[in-house]
Amino acid sequence: MSERAGAAVEITTADVRDLLADRRIFPELPEDLRDDTELVLDSMGLVWLLHQVRLRFGLTVDPDEEDFAEFGSVERIAAYLRRAAARAA
Asked: What end-to-end distance do the CA atoms of the chain give, in Å?
């Protein structure tokens, strides 16, 4: 499901930054995380992030190994999720 109340999902960089703000999961990320700051997410962090995307946005994402580079910054994560939502619509 990639729609929320009949509207297509539009995941923003602010949404991604909010998901990454959980210090229990991402303790090393700075609070003033910029959109283009390079990120290295471990497997647990990536699984948690994708689970939260499914819960909050109703979007199930199952990235292939070659997609992992798309999780290297807030900006790239948001763009990847928007593309995934458009494909799922």
From this structure: 8
* Domains of the chain, CATH where assigned: 3-88 (1.10.1200.10)
Supply the pLDDT for residue 8: 65
pTM for the structure as a whole: 0.87
Give CA–CA dist 37/30, Å, rounded: 10
- What amino acid occupies position 32? D
Per-residue pLDDT tens digits for 46-73: 999 999 999 999 999 999 999 999 999 9
Residue 44: which residues within 8 A CB-CB, separation 6 or more? 25
Give me the long-range contacts of 45-49 (CB less than 8 A, separation at least 24). Answer: 46/71, 48/22, 49/19, 49/20, 49/77
The residue type found at 53 is V
